């Protein structure tokens, strides 16, 4: 986990390097030529309206989808597009739609997350074979540590399905951490959480970063994302529209327009709309305005 190696003049190393990632589904280009880097010690936010391609981009990074074009490297090595190999390489993720083993206990869910880091593998873990028993003590200790880290140690024996929604989301994070990643991808970690749970999750993500794990996080909660992130990238209709500090992204009128559903100059597919608007503007000699508050959902 302590991977803060300094091989270059900079103290930060590039953990994730996605270049020209494109994902097409038939005629639909869900992700278009997206470049994104994440360095060690960094929390990077990924925002964008519904359907912008954020989850699809995550799926391309984690081998769930084979990108139509582009390349994804982790710590300098191109990743094979196979989810278990990506996890093994050091990238872990959570899902927008929670994916826990609902009939397993909280502890067992974390133990399953460890299978890529133990020799025994998933089936041995699930079937509790002899090899698993040996590795079990160490795994158990680490899993309990992780449950403590997310504040769920007192529920280790509860069935995952009996946890409130917010706790299930946290359990997903613990399960992801169990694979001892160098990069954690979080897809809407606070969806369905109340404000207090969201604040706790914010602290949790900072604590994860402080352990030397880089974080790339998708969220619609703007307060959360801008508080948390060193850098934010905004996807709109599959393209990276802007990337920068919270100030830069919040101040970008195209981002505001995208969230409000107003086409911006140069937006993919916006030409026709722009023409119509120009015609309307001529007719009404009216200029379109947008709010300056970047807190839109
Ligand atoms: N497997 C698929 N087959 C066809 N189209 C897909 C597939 N997965 C995603 N899409 C389409 O790609 C586009 C991007 O979807 P995606 O789920 O990546 O958006 P998102 O930014 O994560 O949105 P949200 O904020 O609502 O989660 C959408 O138009 C979606 O319908
Ligand atoms: Mg999504």
TrEMBL record:
A GO biological process held by the record: L-isoleucine import across plasma membrane
Database matches in InterPro entries: AAA+_ATPase, ABC_AA/LPS_Transport, ABC_transporter-like_ATP-bd, BCA_ABC_TP_C, P-loop_NTPase
Biased composition (Polar residues): 286-297
Coiled coil stretches, renumbered: none
Region (Disordered): 273-297
UniProt xrefs under Pfam families: ABC_tran, BCA_ABC_TP_C
UniProt entry keywords in alphabetical sequence: ATP-binding, Nucleotide-binding, Transport
Top-level taxonomy: Bacteria, Bacillati, Actinomycetota, Actinomycetes, Kitasatosporales
Domain ABC transporter, chain residue ranges per copy: 16-262
GO molecular function: ATP binding; ATP hydrolysis activity; L-isoleucine transmembrane transporter activity; L-phenylalanine transmembrane transporter activity; L-valine transmembrane transporter activity
UniProt name for this protein: Branched-chain amino acid ABC transporter ATP-binding protein
GO CC aspect terms: plasma membrane
